[in-house]
Amino acid sequence: MFIRVDSSNGVPVYEQIVRQVKFAIADGVVAAGDLLPSVRELARELAINPNTVARAYRDLQSQELVELASGIGLSVRGGAKRECQTQRRQLLQARVGQVLEEAFRSGLDAAAVRRLVDAELTRLEKQFMGNGNHE
Amino acid sequence: MFIRVDSSNGVPVYEQIVRQVKFAIADGVVAAGDLLPSVRELARELAINPNTVARAYRDLQSQELVELASGIGLSVRGGAKRECQTQRRQLLQARVGQVLEEAFRSGLDAAAVRRLVDAELTRLEKQFMGNGNHE
DNA sequence: ACTACCGTACTAGTGCGATAGTACACATTT
DNA sequence: AAATGTGTACTATCGCACTAGTACGGTAGT
């Protein structure tokens, strides 16, 4: 699967899994009715403990994004895609707000912030040129 | 002092202290030669353990931003202000880059990102209207 | 000298994320 | 019926950030 975790960045691994599964749902990489990779399979793939994956899946289930197909696995629920897209958009907006607020606190004014954003934007445009992203 | 910590956001408290002391130095709130608040005083103020503050101060000392005035306290070193300003600028630029990259990955194009940034920017401008910040 | 304050060092205990191993109920496949 | 694979539950253990309390050497004020 498309999931990658980094155990050294402070963010709990199970949260990283939850986040990336949500992104996969939002992107349509897994559609409604599709099964998530099994707990043991994903654990083997990521070289982590099955309990950690199970913890992430439990969270996804309690958020009603995914439902138990008993004996089969966990399947993506109907409204999950739109919900994940909404959550992703809200998360992004919040992070943009945080960073801009930090920029203000650093003494930059709106014009300086705009310059900084534009500089990073053109840098990233070169990097992402001509591909439909979704690593 | 001007420091505020949040023990429930995952970031170690001592790192929050290091970060905010650096910001205070960058902003000139504490100038070269000034003493930092004592370990015990800051610990009492933040309602945390003195060891946690001591840990933060040890980091600042090993980064040569602050030096031991034996028996007196820790004083801000000469080049610290410029160094902290540089670090803060680099940190900010990196965070802007991260967020914009995440925006690209969410499927937004450069124009959409610019719209999102502008929206947050005008929202924050209202909030910060007519004050020299530094909460 | 005495007291008070400074940073530092040390040990012990707590909370939480993660690991490790086992057991269980369920469904599919053979 | 048996084997395999699914998610789940449970206990034990480990590491790390943090708390808690104490002790020590250095400096200033009296």
TrEMBL record, chains A, B:
Keywords: DNA-binding, Transcription, Transcription regulation. Signal peptide: none annotated. Gene3D superfamilies: Winged helix-like DNA-binding domain superfamily/Winged helix DNA-binding domain (1.10.10.10). One of its GO terms (molecular function) is DNA-binding transcription factor activity. It holds the Pfam family GntR. PROSITE patterns: HTH_GNTR. This is GntR family transcriptional regulator. It comes from Aeoliella straminimaris.
